[in-house]
Write a structure and sequence with these properties.
binds flavin mononucleotide; 347 residues; alpha/beta; 13 helices; 8-stranded parallel beta barrel; 3-stranded antiparallel sheet; TIM Barrel
């Protein structure tokens, strides 16, 4: 059934396909039988309950940032079986993002290249939707960024604005300094500016009774030396955890011709070719910190085996984006079944 749906979706442009799919998912999710039908396919779902950073997740499978940027469909995604949804990246002011076309399918590689550029309606719009929407038992993460026109020297103010706006409607925050599609954003991953940014958010967090976990989303293209810096930053700033990883600028694993890649132009690569690179980052961070650093693993998960690999490498939760585009909701059920079986074997 999903394959037929995907066949038609893949006939239209990737960005239009996204909005079409969301339209149908939202309509379908209004029928209560959907989630009952889907969860009936997974035996012993209770085994999937996961505690992470003091939060109770009904299962460890999340929708990665960028899919529901404006918090328009998180509830519907919960009906499909996700245990958590990370909305955003949101910025203080609305912004249109880069010119279209800005999202490309690489079917043979089961990958996507995007240079969306944080297109979003602004954090206050997302806030309104989160306040009025049905949570459906979901944990919600707020992925925050800066506006395109804000220089890095003032980026802190943008992140603080988003933090304050979303504080009472999300369960955790992710600081996104790793998108390749906003000029100079990745420079904020350097030690000094990063410590300053995270400390500013920590001070704001400390003013409130119920502190929110703050995680950092990192690029898969960091060197081991840069990853060591991230570990140090995490210690110094008492970071709650890491989301590893964002998209890559590396194109070496692709089967596409140079010509096709030149036609596409700049952007972040996601999907299957990213899998090993992102798993390697997770494994490195986990080993370096003796498994003490909480990690959400994301990048190239297209099967239950990929998901189990991320968990084995040191992630406690995982997120899907491109795999969900290619494999659809059956991927969630299959991963659930895979995790249930692996946990039952251990017990
Ligand atoms: C079209 C698209 C838009 C994205 N937008 C964001 C975003 O706004 N913020 C963010 O942190 N990550 C964003 N991502 C990155 C994903 O959250 C994820 O980290 C990355 O795609 C790797 O996972 P995947 O291989 O499962 O897609 C985006 C990815 C895609 C494909």
């Amino acid at each position: 059934m999903f394959k037929v749906f995907r066949f038609f979706l893949f006939l239209i442009s990737p960005e239009r396909a996204h909005y079409t799919a969301v339209f149908f998912i939202k309509r379908l999710s209004r029928f209560p039988f959907l989630s009952t039908f889907l969860s009936a396919k997974v035996k012993n779902e209770k085994v999937l309950a996961t505690t992470f950073l003091g939060l109770e997740f009904k299962n460890p499978i999340g929708l990665a940032a960028g899919f529901d940027k404006d918090a328009t469909c998180f509830s519907a995604m919960g009906s499909l079986g996700f245990g958590f949804v990370e909305i955003g990246t949101v910025t203080p002011k609305p912004q249109e993002g880069n010119d279209k076309p800005r999202l490309f399918r690489l079917k043979k590689d089961e990958a996507l290249i995007n240079r969306m550029g944080f297109n979003n309606m602004g954090v206050d719009e997302a806030r309104k939707r989160l306040m009025s929407g049905d949570r459906n038992g979901l944990i919600i993460g707020g992925n925050i960024g800066k506006n395109k026109w804000t220089p890095n020297a003032q980026a802190k103010e943008d992140y603080l604005y988003c933090f304050k706006s979303l504080y009472d409607c999300v369960d955790y925050f992710v600081v996104n300094v790793s998108s390749p599609n906003t000029q100079q954003l990745r420079a904020l991953q350097e030690k000094e500016p990063l410590i300053e940014l995270l400390n500013a958010l920590n001070s704001e967090n400390a003013l409130r009774g119920n502190k929110r976990p703050i995680l950092l989303k990192i690029a898969p293209d960091l060197s081991f030396e840069q990853l060591d810096d991230i570990v140090e930053v995490a210690k110094v700033t008492k970071l709650s955890g890491i989301v590893a990883t964002n998209t890559t600028i590396d194109r070496s694993c692709l089967t596409q011709s140079e010509k096709r890649l030149d036609q596409i132009g700049n952007g972040g690569l996601s999907g299957k070719p990213l899998k090993d690179q992102s798993t390697a980052v997770i494994a490195y961070l986990s080993k370096k910190t003796n498994g003490t650093l909480p990690i959400i693993g994301v990048g190239g998960i297209h099967s239950k085996e990929d998901a189990l690999e991320k968990l084995a490498a040191g992630a406690t939760l995982i997120q899907l984006y491109t795999g969900f585009i290619y494999e659809g909701p059956p991927l969630i059920q299959s991963i659930k079944q895979g995790i249930v079986s692996s946990r039952e074997t251990v017990q």
